[in-house]
Amino acid sequence: MNEIDDQLRLLIPRLRRFAVSLTRNPSNADDLVQACLERALSKWNDKRADGDLRAWLFSILYRQFLDAHRRSRRYARMLEFFTGRDDAHPSAERSVIAQSSLQAFDQLPAEQRALLLWVSVEGLSYQQVADILDVPTGTVMSRLSRARQALRQLSDGEIARPALRILK
Amino acid sequence: MISMPPSDNDLHAYVDHQLSEADRQQVEIYLANHPAAAKRVRAWQQDAQHLRTTLSAALHQSANPNLDPATIRQRLKHRTHRQLANAAVLMVAIGVGGFGGWHARQMTLLSAAAPMADALQAYRLIAQQGILPADYQSGDKQGMQGWLDRYFAQADRLPDLTGAGFKPVSGRLLSTDQGAAAMVVYQDAGGQKISFYIRPPGPRNFLLPRGSRRDGELQAEYWSGPGYNYAMVIPSDTSAAQTLKQTLDF
């Protein structure tokens, strides 16, 4: 049990980083990590003995993020119905030119952020990512290619600049 | 073995170090002779490097003791105990049978949910994360009270917290399974936020004994008044919380 805890402890900083990149908010991120660890500890027996612990935890955390996201979307829609207002329109911040790679990264959809973090930052194999997302490796590669392209364009400001030029 | 010229996927796999040694050499020879492709690949490599550098900072957050596996194990054990205890009540109830059993089940279900958990949830959604915008904004208590009275007849008056430096700034209507609720956020000059939460007691008219409960970094004080349940949510361990405790008698 102590050995398991030690393995988990080593991975907590990586889980927190992944969670921040998904939620963009440190306190939500820690809630997510906590929920992920609770699930991991209570489902420990489901883990494949030969599987990579880090990839398994990423997959739990990602799924919980998607569930929570879905729930809050539903909640927002319900409120919109109740108050007759649309809270879901994109914020003005979105159209601001991305000045740093982090800003560009933060503008990507959640799945693209997760893909780039898993592959480029954590160095997971395409197969591991395919297992997490439950899709074939070919799909991982095409989604990754789109994510890279999107990050490239945002970093170059290719998307944001033309919109600003019109104002001249 | 990949075929030449390399496909886009092959180039991505090259960037991600996912090619075999032989394939990797093939791609390098190809890139040496094709500057346009080499430029694209370099841009991807640079983006990846930027990401690694930028995101490495996020690995060095100060530790959060709530996330320690030993703490989490402890919490899971408590939760199991509570569920077992609830199950035990149910067993007894089934033994007693009939109406008594049903009644005990209701009590179990009601006590299993922490009181006014929705008030804390609303505080987190609105005051902390700013996920939902306000329905009503006002700097003065009269205006806010008027707004609240439109939806909740004969409710407790909004508490006057000016003594502690807090003013009502925004209100938001919410929907709960007990009926429509509202939350009024108070803020002080330092940006600290506390909330006043009101909702009907639900179809079973479940009124609360006056109480207080701590949940993570938040403290909830709750009570029942004329026709409604109320809660005030305060971030605990802040100077604001101390001042309020001294100022107010919840």
From TrEMBL, chain A:
RNA polymerase sigma factor 70 region 4 type domain span: 103-151
Domain PhyR sigma2: 12-61
Signal peptide extent: none
Keywords attached to this entry: Sigma factor, Transcription, Transcription regulation
Transcription regulation listed as a keyword: yes
Gene3D superfamilies for the chain: 1.10.1740.10, Winged helix-like DNA-binding domain superfamily/Winged helix DNA-binding domain
Similarity section: Belongs to the sigma-70 factor family. ECF subfamily.
Official protein name in the record: RNA polymerase subunit sigma-24
Gene source species: Pseudomonas frederiksbergensis
Automatic annotation (TrEMBL), chain B:
Top-level taxon in the UniProt lineage: Bacteria
Source organism (scientific name): Pseudomonas frederiksbergensis
Protein's name in the database: Transmembrane anti-sigma factor
Keywords of the record: Membrane, Transmembrane, Transmembrane helix
Ranges that cross the membrane: 84-102
